[in-house]
Amino acid sequence: MTENVSFIQRIMKKASKIEAHELRAVLLSFAFVFTLMAAYYILRPVRDAMASDWTDTEVSLLWNLNFFISLGVVAIYGIAVSRLRFIVLVPAVYAFFAASFLAFYLGVSAIEDRVLIDKTFYIWVSVFSLFHISVFWSFMSDLYTKEQSGRLFAFIAAGSSAGALVGPLIPTLFAGALGTDQLLLIAAVMLLIPIPMILYLDRLKIVDLHNEDVSADLTTATIGGKPFAGFKMFFTNPYLLAIGLFILLYTAIGSFVYFEQKNLLAAYDRATRTQILGAVDWFVNILTFAIGLFATSRIVTRFGMPATLAMVPVFIAAGLLILAFAPILTVVLALQVARRAGNYAITRPGREMLFTAVDRETRFKAKPVIDIAVYRGGDALSSIAFAGLTDGIGLGLGAMAAVGAGIASVWAFVGAFLGRRFERLDGGEVPTASPPGDAAVTKV
């Protein structure tokens, strides 16, 4: 048995640079995000299939409503972070979302007019899609050191891809037989599974990783401070502002491709759309899993963070130029697969590494502001721009793709800048916003 364990450890170290004492924590982190993303990818095709029944202007309105709802959710979460112990806070997030999707499941069977509940569900899944993963990565940044993040986060992120491989198979194979409503119940149950994982990972942080100095113990610690400090940190910290700009450009590209996909799928019925989108998700996550498992950590260690963060934007700019000359559904779906796989396997882990250079309060207060409020603000602005350029001015898919290529080029520049800033930290921590007269907090 010991020989088998040793063999597994050698294989894991060779494939993904995981040390023996990190193996249990990394595999459990992998399983944690696997479960989260499997649940989300059951819900995602259900949500996206609804959008093709609505105009660009209707979807833009929903995205703007989503931005304001996200601001409120982030503010409430800031209060919870300030007052609750982490042993309660992190599990409570997933229990809350599980209860919310159970409520939707009960609601769709009790309410005859589906339009209002469909649009409410569309917005809520969009809030969930960012919130659950933001809290997960805040937790990961609190478990692992900056050095470990460069080696381990890509492998952990591959767990999200593995979960996203399994999740879409359920709506793809069973949406026609089960109907979409039953999928909500399945997702709600799955969101309860990570709760015991969180408690055990907190123990492994001390027992296996010996990362007591990364931050205080989850079982006893609260962050304290002002509930809305995350908003102030974001607006007063140049490093966080640069991350926010990176996110805004990322969302702009995603919005452009999403709207084109939505419009080209309008000719299909909802069940067919759900199956097509589920298949797209499956292909995305096969690529993401392979890249994240075997390539991303090597890209980071060999080429550095500037190249890592700029790599996908450069590729997307080229893809959008191709789309400008060949504006058809097949090309849009191929670009969507490539864009999302690159983002999930390379850009997202690189982006999350940036937060290992900030203190715990910033991770749990300012990070959700960026991941959720800024992200949804970018969605709102880009949706207004897209609706204005298509419904308003009348630009076609090719012209919109050319505009997107220009945005992707700026995104690449910002990524390279952030990567250079991160590498100059030399293991230190980015100063956080402090009250007047106080020294900025740094980690030695």
N- to C-terminal separation?
A: 41 Å
By secondary-structure content and strand pairing, the structural class works out as mainly alpha
Q: State the low-pLDDT regions, or none.
A: 216-220, 427-444
Give the averaged pLDDT, no decimals. Answer: 78
Total number of helical segments? Answer: 15
Q: What is the CATH homologous superfamily assignment?
A: MFS general substrate transporter like domains
At CATH level 2, the architecture is Up-down Bundle
Biggest β-sheet strands, sense, barrel: none
Give the number of DSSP strands. 0
Please give the oligomerization state of what you see: single chain
Overall, the morphology is globular
CATH fold descriptor? Growth Hormone, Chain: A
Polypeptide structure, described:
The structure is a single chain. The protein has 444 residues and is mainly alpha-helical. Helices cover 81% and strands 0% of the residues. It has helices at 2-16, 23-51, 56-83, 86-110, 114-143, 146-178, 181-190, 194-207, 229-236, 238-264, 270-294, 296-325, 329-353, 360-393, 397-423. Helix 4 runs antiparallel to helix 7.
List the helices and strands and how they pair.
Blueprint lengths: L1 H15 L6 H29 L4 H28 L2 H25 L3 H30 L2 H33 L2 H10 L3 H14 L21 H8 L1 H27 L5 H25 L1 H30 L3 H25 L6 H34 L3 H27 L21
Helix pairs in contact: 2-5, 2-6, 2-7, 2-8, 2-11, 3-5, 3-14, 4-5, 4-7, 4-8, 5-14, 6-11, 6-12, 6-13, 9-10, 9-14, 10-13, 10-14, 10-15, 11-13, 12-13, 12-15
